[in-house]
Design brief:
Strand content: 25-35%
Largest sheet: 4 strands, antiparallel
Strand order of the largest sheet: 5-6-7-8
Helix content: under 10%
Number of strands: 8
Shape: globular
Oligomer: single chain
Length: 138
Amino acid sequence: MALTWVENFTAYGTMTSLLLDGLYAEYTSVTLVADPDSGASGNVLRFDANPYGGGGATGLIRKVLDTSNVTAGMACRIYLANLPPASDQRPMPIVFCDASNNRLITVHVTPSGQLQAYYNNLGTLLGTTDPNVVVAGS
């Protein structure tokens, strides 16, 4: 699998409307802000909507892959000021969908700071990390 795309959001400044100029299919409840990490450059996405609403973050940014793929990967840095207060309010920083936008693979952050991967929209638990992989405020 070859690396096909990397993003640090620098080219957009703080204008989220520019996200739709060819690279992204949709964005909802996000803003672009300077990366708070002093060792990094570029911008980061801040999800403005309450990330603890009804089973996952309501903010999103969607990138459509150029072709159908059997194998795909994704990586991101996330920051949560607080861990989710309950298991039914877990943010989903990574979601893979099919061509009809049905959720295939979702990655959730749990109240104990674990990452959990599910297949078929919470149908089958694929794996869970140790607790405190994600720490509030970092």
